[in-house]
Amino acid sequence: MTIAVRHLLHQETRGEMELRLGERTFEVVITARGRRSDEALALMDTWQPGGCGPVVDDPGRPFRYWLVPPGTAAQWENGFGRCVARGRVLMPPLDRSSPPGPFWVRPWNRHRLVGAGLLRSALVTAGGGRAGWPPLPPLYT
Questions:
Q1: Quick one: which of 90, 124, 127, 129 is 20 to 30 A from 117 by CA?
Q2: Which residues of the chain have pLDDT under 50?
């Protein structure tokens, strides 16, 4: 486990923390926030054993961040979300479950990430099988 993730595990009420994505931590699938991503989240709570893994909403931007296992970006083919394997992502304090600022929609769990295959299916199902969720604005990486 990298130093950055170890630091995140010990973070409590301090401010947001910028983490570098990488092969030993996690990657992030970024979707638009809204009704469809809420539907996908509800499906993930049902489909993934133990419920959906860690998910962050950023009210300052129209994004939802799904933390997925390393290697997901190399296999990600889904028009409903973009998988990012490099760059930086802003993580909220572990105890923040509502705004202001980014917050955990589903809490951080060091033993479980969002299942990438299940997420792919949930996004397609929530999208009604139609390509073209609202386009994502340029990402901050």
A1: 90
A2: 1-4, 6, 9, 13, 139-141
